[in-house]
Amino acid sequence: MEVYLDNAATTALTKDVLEEVKFVSEKIYGNPSSMHKLGVEAEKVVKSAREKIATSLSVSPSELFFTSGATESDNTAVFGSVYANSRKGNHIITSKIEHPAVLMCFDKLEREGFNVTYLDVDSDGIIDMEQLKSVINEKTIFISVMAVNNELGSIQPIREIAKLKKKYDFILHTDAVQAYTKIPESLYNMADLISLSGHKIHALKGVGALVVRQGTKVNPLILGGGHESGFRSGTENVVGIVSLGKAVEEKWDKERIAELREKLKSGIEENCDVKVNCYHDGESAPHILSVTFNGIRGEVLMHALEARGIYVSTGSACHSNRFGESHVLSAIGLSKNEIGGTIRFSLGKLNTEAEIDYAIECIAMEAKKLK
């Protein structure tokens, strides 16, 4: 049996998304900027996808812009906002557990002279709101905090951060890649900027979106043909956009996924010497489970499970090979040995109860061998 439990890294296309991709690839291949029939047809399917995604987030279609993925969305949000509003102040804030697509932007801005505050997180991977309130000031122009952490599943208090806008004039960005369709949009859609990714929700790779709330001042990063209402130039990825719209149309059964995660958690705890990270009494995102196996190297266990057809991760696939030790796990207080023994299990809509039963059996067997 093959069991894919690395859905926070990427997801497989569902049958309906794959069929939609095939149809559009074969039949609607025009450039949506062209004025002939094929171009108009392409423009229509892009418009339809935009409306579906905007509706799912309770935003206006005019506030949603397609990108090549979350990295571009994050970069555009950070650089576009900070540079556009730099005359108002030079203080920007983020957390210590952001994705590198955000953290590396902040590092660059810090080297350019911007004053950066990196917020701490507690043992549950949640930012300290009191620390935020103590550092925010009249020169703060931009705050970026992800809605759900990609390694831990911890849910950040985006609504509480947004309330500070009543007193301070800053732009709030949230990387909602692991939140979108997984938790209620009302927990993060009050942000001024929201980054999304297609391949995390069973759509194609190479497509994403950035929500830019009306009135938010953001400079475009990619110039050229004036596509996406002049905000993001470059011919739209019609097939990718359609796949994203179709994936959003297919509802994500949060309760079923949460039950599968609970079953996996209980099975591992019953059979292995482990510590579950940032579970927060089950209030973390329903699809991510971070587990530290005491006395076992996570990489060794990962490959042992791979040999049995089970695919998991020792960290974020977006950066684990390059960055080495997880900055996220370090921020929540794990020791070097604990970090080395941590596995991330992440579920998707295609996982079944039979797969979880098989995974628990194999995890218990391989962990026993490695102790």
Task: Map the helices and strands.
Elements: E1 3-4, H1 15-27, H2 37-57, E2 64-67, H3 70-84, E3 91-95, H4 100-111, E4 115-119, H5 129-135, E5 140-144, H6 158-163, E6 171-175, E7 193-197, E8 208-212, H7 238-249, H8 254-271, E9 274-277, E10 288-293, H9 298-306, E11 310-311, H10 320-323, H11 327-331, H12 336-340, E12 342-346, H13 353-370
Parallel strand pairs: 1-11, 3-4, 3-5, 5-6, 6-7
Antiparallel strand pairs: 2-8, 7-8, 9-10, 10-12
Explain what you see.
A seven-stranded mixed beta sheet has the order 2-8-7-6-5-3-4, with helices on both faces. The longest helix has 21 residues, at 37-57. The protein has 371 residues and is of the alpha/beta class. The protein has helices at 15-27, 37-57, 70-84, 100-111, 129-135, 158-163, 238-249, 254-271, 298-306, 320-323, 327-331, 336-340, 353-370; strands at 3-4, 64-67, 91-95, 115-119, 140-144, 171-175, 193-197, 208-212, 274-277, 288-293, 310-311, 342-346. It is globular, with a radius of gyration of 21 Å. The chain has two domains: 3-12 and 253-370, Aspartate Aminotransferase, domain 1 (Alpha-Beta Complex), CATH 3.90.1150; 15-249, Aspartate Aminotransferase, domain 2. The chain is built from 13 helices and twelve strands.
Short description:
By secondary structure, the protein is of the alpha/beta class.
